[in-house]
Design brief:
Layout (H helix, E strand, L loop, with lengths): L7 H9 L16 H17 L6 E4 L5 H8 L5 E5 L2 H10 L1 H6 L1 E4 L2 H6 L6 E7 L11 H9 E9 L14 H7 L2 E7 L9 E8 L1
Parallel strand pairs: 1-2, 1-4, 2-3, 4-5
Antiparallel strand pairs: 5-7, 6-7
Helix pairs in contact: 2-3
Length: 204
């Protein structure tokens, strides 16, 4: 029997406090080889497309793994949005230097980006987050194109089986329809399953 896709409210409720044991914030900070490969792949993608003084905003920063990687590589103007206060508390406990060095806002990305001004950031980063935005939350994508000139994604696009938590889509189609130009595509992305694609967009 097929499950119904999450509504936006259901998606928000799940990610505020995942209760199925699959997405505990502590897990994102583990030193597994596949996760370390992801760190390197993401950093290489950023280094080709963002200077060290770029203003970078990560959507769905969770407990701070990506922010930690960027901070250690010399990026200094780092911000994050995270819907889960519990995940931010894990960051504060397990990665206090990252927590102190970055600006993390707890809340829903759709609402928070909608309140930002044009070009508040140079780069918006998202890794395996946008796939959890159901169709009714897709206004977020338009806000992303306003808030930053460059968008860097590593996202789940190719669904092998249905999941109520996933809304796979073609992000090239999404962002080019919104006026962005794709300047880089990577597939496969080291450390990620083959269902993930790396893309970089720049405002036309």
């Amino acid at each position: 029997m097929t499950n119904k896709p999450f509504t936006l409210e259901e998606a928000h409720n799940y990610w505020r406090s995942p209760g199925d044991g699959k997405n505990a914030p502590e897990n994102y900070l583990m030193q597994r080889p596949d996760l370390q490969k992801r760190d390197r792949a993401l950093l290489e993608l950023l280094e080709r497309n963002a200077s060290r003084d770029a203003r970078i905003l990560e959507i769905g920063c969770n407990s701070g793994r990506n922010l930690r990687s960027l901070m250690r590589a010399g990026y200094r103007d780092l911000s994050g949005i995270e819907i889960s206060q519990a995940a931010v508390d894990v960051m504060k406990k397990m990665e206090p230097a990252v927590y102190r060095a970055t600006r993390v806002t707890v809340g829903e990305a759709e609402a928070l980006l909608g309140e930002m001004k044009a070009d508040d950031y140079d780069v918006i980063l998202s890794t395996a987050v946008l796939v959890h935005i159901p169709p009714e939350g897709e206004r977020l994508f338009k806000s992303m194109t306003v808030v930053a000139k460059t968008i860097v994604l590593v996202e789940f696009e190719r669904a092998a089986a249905f999941s109520s938590r996933h809304s796979p889509r073609s992000y090239r189609e999404v962002f080019e329809t919104l006026g962005m130009r794709q300047i880089e595509e990577i597939h496969p992305v080291s450390g990620f399953p083959k269902s993930y694609v790396g893309r970089v967009f720049r405002r036309s």
